Amino acid sequence: LRDDPEVLSIAYIALVLQALSQLASPFSTMVEMSLQSTGKRLFASILSSLKSGIIFIPLLYVLAKIYKLNGIIAAQPICNVIVLIPSIIFGIWFFKKIKQEETNHKA
């Protein structure tokens, strides 16, 4: 099984896609954890839900229908990249809010 070229090809594609998508994950995770640790649970839950279901499940369904196994392999990495967009938006909002709260607290 380890020497089967088809299995190795599938594993290679999965590994490359996961590795590339991991470039987006640290920022998304940092924003989600920052929101959770400062009591902004709703926004943290929204990000988590996007990553775990709202984007992932429909993406998995559509990609599996179109690309079969390759679609299943690609669904999570693509989801990780898509979730980066709302993570950036929430991150900008969060850090502006923190800066504003610091300014108001000092005054």
User: Helicity range of the residues?
Assistant: over 70%
- Topology pattern, helix = H, strand = E: HHHHH
Total strand count, please? Answer: 0
Work out the helix count. 5
Q: Which class best fits the helix and strand makeup?
A: mainly alpha
Distance from first to last alpha carbon: 67 Å
Q: What share of the residues does DSSP label as strand, in percent?
A: under 5%
Low-confidence regions: none
What would the principal axes of the Cα set say about the shape?
Answer: elongated
**Major β-sheet profile:** none
Radius of gyration: 18 Å
Mean pLDDT across residues: 92
How would you characterize the overall build of this protein?
This protein is mostly helical. 88% of the residues lie in helices and 0% in strands. It has helices at residues 5-21, 25-37, 41-54, 56-67, 69-106. The chain is elongated, with a radius of gyration of 18 Å. The mean pLDDT is 92.
What are the key terms here?
single chain; mainly alpha; elongated
Brief summary:
The protein is an all-alpha fold. It contains 5 helices and no strands.
Topology diagram in text:
Elements: H1 5-21, H2 25-37, H3 41-54, H4 56-67, H5 69-106
Helix pairs in contact: 1-5, 2-3, 2-5, 3-5, 4-5
